[in-house]
Amino acid sequence: MMEPLSVAEATRRVMNSHVSLLDALRLGVVNYSSLAEHIKPEVEKQVGRKVSVDAVKMALIRFSDELSETYECIEKKISDILCRSVLELKNDLVVVVLRPDAFIRLLPKLPGLMEKARLIQITQGTDTFTVVLDLTLLRELRQTVGDRGIVEVIDDQSCIILISPPEITKTPGVISYITHLIASRGINITQIVSCHTDTIFIVNREDALKTYSTIEHQILLLRKTK
């Protein structure tokens, strides 16, 4: 039989499932008593018994101390990387999801498409391939693979490219930081593609400028505070 969870471990698990609360705990800007009251029912479900608010509160305080020690160093690294990052915006893109046999038919045409394209990205999934490319090249792609080879076409897309220093490949939390910013503005990300030091966010064209300005504003703010 599995050993019962401690209140401390249950509290950690509950907090890790609530990102917004976790961020506030990291920063030490929460009322521990109110937060303990708020998550107490979830902690009790985890441990399988009644627990006191004071026990949850103490677990939160200890967990907060642990988070602040580790996160402060990571946050500085994230800030440094974003201060040295730049943005690019490209419009008139389309996302095409292909069946594997269709992608094989496309392979001989790829060199020619890559010469013409302002941007082309290919991602392999478990059952499909996803190609992001210029809208002007969609017709040529359709003629090559046929409509039966296409699972889905998502048009009116744009991409915001975050070009960062090499440290981004070894620093945890940078992409999470950016996606949280984007999500907080109610923007859906169609695709995220990583290419070494470039991180490419594909969004609906109507959200492109808002996405760009959201990231740019944060980069400029970090540069000023740094």
Describe the structure concisely.
The chain is of the alpha+beta class and 226 residues long. It has 9 helices and 6 strands, in the order ααααβααββαβαββα.
Describe this structure in words.
With 226 residues, the protein is of the alpha+beta class. It has 2 domains: 7-75; 84-225, VC0802-like, CATH 3.30.2130.10. It has 9 helices and 6 strands, in the order ααααβααββαβαββα. It has a 6-stranded antiparallel sheet. A hairpin with a 4-residue loop joins β2 (120-124) and β3. α4 (53-83) crosses α9 (205-225). It is elongated and about 65 Å long.
Within the CATH hierarchy, at the fold level, what is the topology of the largest domain?
VC0802-like
Helix tally equals: 9
Order of helices and strands: HHHHEHHEEHEHEEH
Instruction: Say how many strands there are.
Output: 6
Spatial strand sequence of the major β-sheet: 2-3-1-4-6-5
In angstroms, what is the radius of gyration?
Answer: 23 Å
Shape: elongated
Q: Per CATH, which architecture of the largest domain?
A: 2-Layer Sandwich
Question: What is the CATH C level class of the largest domain, in words?
Answer: Alpha Beta
Overall average residue pLDDT: 92
How is the biggest beta sheet arranged? 6 strands, antiparallel
Low-confidence stretches: none
CATH superfamily membership of the largest domain: VC0802-like
Strand content: 15-25%
Structural class: alpha+beta
Number of domains: 2
The CA-CA distance between the termini, in Å, is: 52 Å
Helicity level, as a percent range?
Answer: 40-55%
